[in-house]
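Progress report, Aim 2. The chain analyzed during this reporting quarter is listed below.
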Amino acid sequence: MRKYETVFILRPELDEEKTTEALEKYRSLIEKNGGEIASIDKWGKRRLAYEIKDTKEGIYIISKFNADPEAASELDRIFKISDEILRHIIVREDE
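Predicted structure tokens for the chain:
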């Protein structure tokens, strides 16, 4: 398994319940594909550096996880098709 870090920005209009549902969806996706979550850090709502899809704010989430490359690519695929995600990035941490 490799170590990964992901940062994703959720739409600002999501309430706390919808934000928690989204986090659980992505957590279960990683665990279902044989990965394990090391940490999840919610930064909360912050101003974006530039507008994305006419949005000036977003809910920032940073997560570290251990998984196989297939799990990371599946997470990337799901991030791309999810409506609640404004932007995301998945980075492999070096040893």
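The first strand starts at residue 2 and ends at 10. The chain has a mean pLDDT of 91. These observations will guide the mutagenesis work planned for the next reporting period.
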